[in-house]
Write a structure and sequence with these properties.
Elements (H helix, E strand, L loop, with lengths): L3 H13 L2 H8 L3 H15 L4 E4 L2 E5 L1 H28 L3 E8 L1 H5 L2 H9 L5 E8 L2 H10 L4 E4 L9 E16 L19 E5 L8 H12 L4 E6 L2 H9 L5 E4 L10 E5 L6 E9 L5 H11 L4
Length: about 300
């Protein structure tokens, strides 16, 4: 098999048309250049150079054809080496990131991606909207490399998570709701209200838990009439007068017609977002992304 050194020496001689100048350019002895070119000719079974002591070196027809290919091969090999070095440093490769909608409204997704890009321009990012239960499954199955999601009391085997963002709760309601007249709302004001809970049917933890704790703090039982999978659906129902929603503050940035947002003045609990990832991660690009994402902790 042809070697990089053989092709490199041949290309340099073909460019200089002189063994001595080629050797100087390569920083080796002239005899070493001659040996490499001779070995190349022997392996191919064809003369590549016309050597004549009285005339300059010239390329044979075979030499002309090989020169073009050899230049391309050397460029590809150098590119491959660069890519390999970048990949080893986490500066090249692929990262698949799952995220919940609040990662967008809170600015967390944009912040992480913005900080990661400088120095990692060769890393291909695939960003996938995915709810928390699906992200945890995808992480365990290797379908994604990391996820911005709602924290859980327990995670699948091999999956870890750290809190990277926290924000207060607000209440969303229809513009004509009686409580919309208030600038702020207390937990006690919510007594007797109908709640819309963004909570997955098969999930035992989530925003339904938040409602229960809020109601307990104010001394009443929350009446949960609707359970939906996302905040957009929840606020759409609220806008139509079906109930109120307790949700993260950043959702007020979604300009949804017919909805009013009011802060909760006496419920200090915050909603958290976590960065989830596999404990054993072999990809340098993913490890580099996780390091940047962890540095974004607020």
């Amino acid at each position: 098999m042809l070697s990089y050194r053989q092709l490199e020496h041949f290309v340099t001689v073909a460019q200089e048309l002189h063994f001595s100048r080629a050797a100087d350019k390569l920083g080796v002895a002239q005899s070493a250049v001659s040996v490499q070119v001779q070995q190349l000719e022997q392996q191919l079974g064809v003369r590549l150079l016309q050597r004549n002591k009285r005339k300059p070196i010239t390329l044979t027809d075979a030499g002309e054809l090989l020169y073009e290919e050899a230049v391309a091969v050397l460029r590809h090999m150098e590119r491959a080496q660069q890519i390999g070095l970048l990949a080893a440093q986490g500066m090249s490769g692929h990262v698949k990131l799952g995220y919940i909608s609040s990662a967008v409204t809170s600015g967390m997704l944009a912040r992480v991606l913005t900080r990661f890009r400088p120095g990692h321009e060769q890393v291909q990012m695939q960003v996938l909207a995915m709810e928390t239960p699906r992200q945890l499954q995808a992480l365990q199955q290797g379908e994604i490399d990391a996820g911005l999601l709602r924290p859980r009391r327990r995670y699948p085997e091999g999956v870890k998570a750290i809190i990277v963002h926290s924000e207060p709760f607000m209440v969303a309601m229809a513009e004509n709701h009686p409580l919309a007249r208030n600038d702020t709302i207390s937990a006690a004001d919510l007594r007797g209200q109908t709640f819309i809970a963004p909570q997955f049917v098969n999930e035992s933890e989530g925003f339904a838990d938040v409602l229960a704790r809020l109601a307990e703090a104010a001394g009443f039982s929350a009446r949960e009439a609707y359970r939906v999978n996302d905040f957009i659906t929840a606020t759409s129902l609220a806008a139509a007068g079906y109930g109120i929603v307790v949700l993260p503050e950043s959702n007020r940035l979604v300009n949804q017609p017919g909805v009013i947002f009011r802060p909760l003045r006496d419920f200090k609990e915050q909603v958290h977002m976590a960065l989830a990832y596999r404990e054993r991660e072999n990809s340098p690009a993913v490890r580099a992304f996780l390091a940047v994402a962890k540095a974004c902790i607020e």
